[in-house]
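User: Predict the structure for this protein chain, please.
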Amino acid sequence: TFTTNAFRENKTDIGGVCYESLAAGTAHINNCADAIKNPRHKFYRSPMIHALHEHEIYDIFRDYEQNPDTYKEIALRSKKWFDEHLGIELAKKYVKVMEKLSTNEHDHNTLREIFEN
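Assistant: Here is the predicted structure, written as C-alpha coordinates:
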Protein backbone atom coordinates (compact mmCIF):
# COMPACT_ATOMS: atom_id res chain seq x y z
CA THR A 1 0.00 0.00 0.00
CA PHE A 2 2.85 2.40 0.82
CA THR A 3 6.47 2.86 -0.04
CA THR A 4 8.80 5.14 1.87
CA ASN A 5 12.12 6.83 1.50
CA ALA A 6 14.88 6.41 4.08
CA PHE A 7 14.19 8.84 6.91
CA ARG A 8 17.04 10.46 8.76
CA GLU A 9 16.85 13.10 11.42
CA ASN A 10 17.55 16.59 10.08
CA LYS A 11 18.05 15.26 6.54
CA THR A 12 15.52 15.64 3.78
CA ASP A 13 16.02 14.25 0.33
CA ILE A 14 14.59 12.38 -2.64
CA GLY A 15 15.80 8.81 -2.92
CA GLY A 16 15.74 6.53 -5.92
CA VAL A 17 12.76 4.60 -4.61
CA CYS A 18 10.57 7.64 -5.32
CA TYR A 19 10.82 7.02 -9.04
CA GLU A 20 9.88 3.36 -8.78
CA SER A 21 7.04 4.08 -6.38
CA LEU A 22 5.46 6.73 -8.55
CA ALA A 23 5.94 4.63 -11.71
CA ALA A 24 4.26 1.66 -10.05
CA GLY A 25 1.37 3.78 -8.84
CA THR A 26 2.05 3.41 -5.13
CA ALA A 27 1.30 5.94 -2.41
CA HIS A 28 4.77 7.12 -1.45
CA ILE A 29 5.77 8.74 1.84
CA ASN A 30 8.78 10.98 1.49
CA ASN A 31 10.72 13.51 3.54
CA CYS A 32 11.79 16.17 1.05
CA ALA A 33 10.93 19.61 2.38
CA ASP A 34 12.26 21.26 -0.79
CA ALA A 35 9.74 19.38 -2.95
CA ILE A 36 6.94 20.95 -0.93
CA LYS A 37 7.97 24.59 -1.20
CA ASN A 38 10.25 24.98 -4.24
CA PRO A 39 8.34 25.33 -7.53
CA ARG A 40 11.52 24.51 -9.47
CA HIS A 41 11.97 21.18 -7.68
CA LYS A 42 11.39 18.15 -9.91
CA PHE A 43 8.88 16.68 -7.47
CA TYR A 44 7.02 19.91 -6.68
CA ARG A 45 3.28 19.20 -6.80
CA SER A 46 3.86 15.48 -7.13
CA PRO A 47 1.34 13.31 -5.29
CA MET A 48 3.93 12.11 -2.79
CA ILE A 49 2.87 12.25 0.83
CA HIS A 50 5.33 14.35 2.77
CA ALA A 51 6.28 13.50 6.33
CA LEU A 52 9.08 15.54 7.81
CA HIS A 53 8.80 14.21 11.36
CA GLU A 54 8.23 10.76 12.87
CA HIS A 55 4.84 11.68 14.31
CA GLU A 56 3.64 12.61 10.82
CA ILE A 57 4.33 9.07 9.59
CA TYR A 58 2.22 7.73 12.43
CA ASP A 59 -0.54 10.25 11.60
CA ILE A 60 -0.53 9.13 7.96
CA PHE A 61 -0.98 5.49 8.96
CA ARG A 62 -3.79 6.42 11.35
CA ASP A 63 -5.47 8.42 8.61
CA TYR A 64 -5.09 5.48 6.23
CA GLU A 65 -7.06 3.31 8.68
CA GLN A 66 -9.95 5.76 8.49
CA ASN A 67 -9.66 6.79 4.81
CA PRO A 68 -8.16 4.02 2.66
CA ASP A 69 -9.86 5.34 -0.49
CA THR A 70 -7.92 8.60 -0.18
CA TYR A 71 -4.67 6.65 -0.46
CA LYS A 72 -5.95 4.56 -3.36
CA GLU A 73 -6.61 7.84 -5.17
CA ILE A 74 -3.11 9.07 -4.34
CA ALA A 75 -1.71 5.85 -5.81
CA LEU A 76 -3.64 6.38 -9.05
CA ARG A 77 -2.49 10.00 -9.26
CA SER A 78 1.08 8.86 -8.63
CA LYS A 79 1.20 6.73 -11.76
CA LYS A 80 -0.42 9.47 -13.86
CA TRP A 81 1.96 12.11 -12.51
CA PHE A 82 4.99 9.92 -13.18
CA ASP A 83 3.93 9.23 -16.77
CA GLU A 84 3.35 12.94 -17.42
CA HIS A 85 6.49 14.28 -15.75
CA LEU A 86 9.14 11.57 -15.72
CA GLY A 87 7.91 8.60 -17.73
CA ILE A 88 6.58 8.41 -21.26
CA GLU A 89 6.13 12.16 -21.68
CA LEU A 90 9.75 12.80 -20.72
CA ALA A 91 10.84 10.09 -23.15
CA LYS A 92 8.88 11.85 -25.91
CA LYS A 93 10.76 15.07 -25.15
CA TYR A 94 14.09 13.25 -25.52
CA VAL A 95 12.94 11.89 -28.88
CA LYS A 96 12.20 15.47 -30.00
CA VAL A 97 15.68 16.53 -28.91
CA MET A 98 17.27 13.65 -30.82
CA GLU A 99 15.27 14.54 -33.92
CA LYS A 100 16.35 18.18 -33.72
CA LEU A 101 19.98 17.23 -33.17
CA SER A 102 20.00 14.74 -36.05
CA THR A 103 18.68 17.32 -38.53
CA ASN A 104 20.71 20.27 -37.24
CA GLU A 105 17.42 22.15 -36.75
CA HIS A 106 18.22 23.49 -33.34
CA ASP A 107 19.81 26.08 -31.20
CA HIS A 108 20.19 26.07 -27.44
CA ASN A 109 16.93 27.94 -26.88
CA THR A 110 14.96 25.52 -29.07
CA LEU A 111 16.26 22.53 -27.15
CA ARG A 112 15.64 24.19 -23.78
CA GLU A 113 12.05 25.00 -24.77
CA ILE A 114 11.31 21.32 -25.34
CA PHE A 115 11.85 20.63 -21.64
CA GLU A 116 10.20 23.80 -20.38
CA ASN A 117 6.87 23.07 -22.05
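The first helix runs from residue 17 to 24.
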